[in-house]
Amino acid sequence: MKERIEELLEKYWEGETTLLEEKELKTLLNSQSEFQEEKSLFGLLESYGQEEPEKVFIPKTKIRKLDSRWLSWAASVAIFTASFVGWRAYEQKQQEQQAYEEVMQAFALIQSNMAKGQEQMQVMNEIKYLNTTNQMFGTVKE
Q: What is the value of pTM for the model shown?
């Protein structure tokens, strides 16, 4: 019987007993003179189960209401902040676009001036095929 009590106690502390096994454990403990600690523990648990629920004080939790004025102010500030950040991002993008267009116009101007310069250098291409200065200026007869 002592072995059965130890087995049931081990299962009880592991949380694996059924209600029938717990009843059996209580009856076995009451019939034995040993296991005084367990007897007192089960006696305390039994006395707690018989206590009237009216004696137990359960505090009520307060539900806190949000003040709608603060909520509307917070929403207004959030909308204003988001609008400001969005506007700054839009302005920055516009400035980047404008700078890009100015750079592209400068490149187009450089390209057109280089094309004019190359056209003016075309005359020099004809000169490079002449062998001597006499051919370039014609021969001088004295």
A: 0.36
